[in-house]
Amino acid sequence: MVKIAPSILAGDFLHLEKDIRLLNEHADILHFDVMDGSLVPNLSFGFPIMEAVAPIATIPMDVHLMIVNPDKYIPRFAKAGASYISFHLEAADIAGKDVSEYISLTHDCGVKAGIAINPDIPVERLFPYLEEADFFLVMSVFAGFGGQTFIEDSIGRIATLKSEMSRRGISKDIEVDGGVSASNARVLAEAGATMLVAGSSVFKAEDPARAIAEMRV
Ligand code: DX5
Ligand code: ZN
Known about the structure:
Blueprint: E1 3-6, H1 16-26, E2 30-35, H2 47-53, E3 61-66, H3 74-79, E4 82-88, H4 89-95, H5 99-108, E5 112-117, E6 135-139, H6 153-167, E7 173-177, H7 182-191, E8 195-198, H8 200-203, H9 208-215
Helix pairs in contact: 6-7, 7-9
D-xylitol-5-phosphate binds next to strand 2, strand 8 and helix 8.
C-alpha cells in the first residue's frame, strides 16, 4: 500500500491549520519542502513553519532538504519533530563530502534518512547506499518549484532502483516527488514507488480529500 505525502508547499499559508487538519485525517505523511535559493533556484520556508505545524500534526513529518550543507540543519529539523529527513546527493557533491556522513548524522538524531536525486543524476549513484539509507527520493521534476510537469523517464528510474533492491534482497521506501497525481500513481506504484509526494494535484483539486483517495492504488 503506497503512502500519500502531500506537500504543504502547495497549501494555503493563510489557513495552514485547516490544511494540516485535513491531511491528518486523509493523508499518511506531511511533506515539507525546504529550499535555500542556492542548491535550487527558489526559497520556501524553514523552521518556523515546521515548529508551528508540529504540535497539531498527528501523522509523521517528512522534511525534504533542498539546501547546501544539510548537516548544519538536520539536528534542528529533527528537534522540530521530523520523522523522515532527505537531503540531496548533489549537496554532498558540492560540499565534497560522502553522503554517508549525512546519513549517520540523521540516524544519530533518531530520524529516518533519505537520499534525494534530481532527474539528471544517474539512479545508480544511490546503489552504494541501499543498505545505509532508509529511503530514496527520486525527483520526477527538477527540484525547486511545485506545479511542474512529471518527467516520464522517472518511472524507469524507479524500476531500476527497485530491481537493484530486489536483487540484493533489500526492501526500502522509494519516494517520488514532482507532478504526481491520480493519473500516474498506479504506474509509479507498479514501478516500485511506496511514498507519493503530491502538491498541486492535492491542493489545487476541488476536493483534496478525494484527490488523495484517488491516488491510493
Ligand atoms: C519540488 C518539491 C515538490 C513539489 C511537488 O521541488 O520537492 O515536493 O512541491 O509539487 P507538485 O506535486 O505540484 O509537483
Ligand atoms: Zn519535495
